[in-house]
Amino acid sequence: MTEDNKHVRMAQALTERAHDLLISHSFAQEQIGFIHTLEMNLGEKIPQRTMLEVEIAASAKRKESSTSHHKYIAKASAHIHHAIEESITKQLNDTDSLYYEVMGIQDGVPAVFDLLAVKSASVGRLEPLVNDLTWLGRELVSLVNLPQYRKKSSTGMAVKVDTPALAIRYLGLENLQWVLPTYAMKHWLPYSTEPFSLMKRKLRELSMSTAIAAKALAQSNGVKEQHAYTLGMMLDIGKAALTRLYLRTHEQVWQDRVRKARDKGHKDLHTALLELGPDPLFLRNLLLENSAKVTQQLIEKMDFRYLPFAAAMEEFAVSYLPNSNKKLTDPLPLTKVLKKAHGYALYLLLADKHFIEPDETKLWFSYLELTKAEQKVLSTCSFHGLQLTIS
């Protein structure tokens, strides 16, 4: 194995580990344990479709008495997930449904982003667009009424802002460039990611970290900060869409199979189905293999007039996985920024839970082609939220 191939393999392993952790901490720990168990026992990783099948492979020797039951559950899970996979594939081919129904994206959002990108942008032109997005108006009013941002009257009393029009004037165009993409992505995240309870928060943190890192790296790479931040914030919209799709489709298919098993008197199957829940490994693989392409699909649907996102998103999507064999020979500056920023955000996710070692960090930064100067810049960034200056 050449040194380059070894680095790609290790980078792929770190990418998979970060996606495991995105699902849940316990799942990521289990994956590391199962992988080591399977490698020691069999000399190689066994490709498995569902977590239940991995559990069977890893625990067969110590649970001989329950092997038959586990296999039956795994078989039921495989049947359900085959139907889920077919359904999701069909739904992903319907971009309009994915855009409007699954994600609930309103045309006013990309229109706002486009307007902020032109020199003729003004608060007056933004106001009618924001008024049509009632959820955004509520978020902006709540933001400017936070204690650290509230205006004070001449007598020292806090002034309450109660309309979106006042809120956008109070924030100003400079702040709105960062605020609006942030709240749009927050709005597009799944309402719930149960049973993966912390996944929604991690998706939001990943988006915020990517956007902030992209903004920090933009200028030195010849990219506009607003472009880098906005697309960086939306870079994982595909993960949000796929998570919504999977959890919704799983519930629909599972309920249908439970009802049929009950109506037909298949007691063993009914009992097995009641033990099944959403499969973390299936969801992780779905995100790994499809999320960048789905983001590209949704960004193209937004049909931006002034934001140069389509070409950069296409480059990012085809080279998303280290083992994709799509080595970009001359990537766009924005693509370079996105790959470095998203990679650094994945590093932060791993480092926060101590899931990456110093030697692995060094390899990961080398794979991302992060210079020492860029690493220094990113190490001084605050990734815990918007840092606004309101006069």
> How much helicity do the residues have?
55-70%
Work out the radius of gyration.
Answer: 23 Å
Total strand count, please? 2
Helix-strand category: mainly alpha
Distance between the termini: 58 Å
Order of adjacent strands in the largest pleated sheet? 1-2
Low-confidence spans: pLDDT under 50, at least 5 residues? Answer: 36-56, 58-65
What share of the residues does DSSP label as strand, in percent?
A: under 5%
The run of helices and strands is HHHHHHHHEEHHHHHHHHHH
Describe the global form: globular
Mean pLDDT: 88
Oligomer: single chain
- Work out the helix count: 18
Main β-sheet description:
2 strands, antiparallel
Characterise the protein shown here.
- The chain is mainly alpha-helical and 391 residues long.
- The chain is 70% helix and 1% strand.
- It contains 18 helices and two strands.
- The chain has helices at 3-23, 25-42, 51-59, 67-92, 95-102, 108-116, 123-132, 134-144, 164-188, 199-218, 225-234, 237-263, 267-274, 280-302, 310-318, 333-352, 358-368, 372-379; strands spanning 151-152, 158-159.
- A two-stranded antiparallel ribbon has the order 1-2.
- Helix 14 runs antiparallel to helix 15 (310-318).
- The longest helix is centred in the middle third of the chain and has 27 residues, at 237-263.
- The protein is globular, with a radius of gyration of 23 Å.
- The chain starts with a helix and ends in a 12-residue tail after the last helix.
- 40% of the residues are buried.
- The model is unreliable at 36-56 and 58-65 (pLDDT under 50).
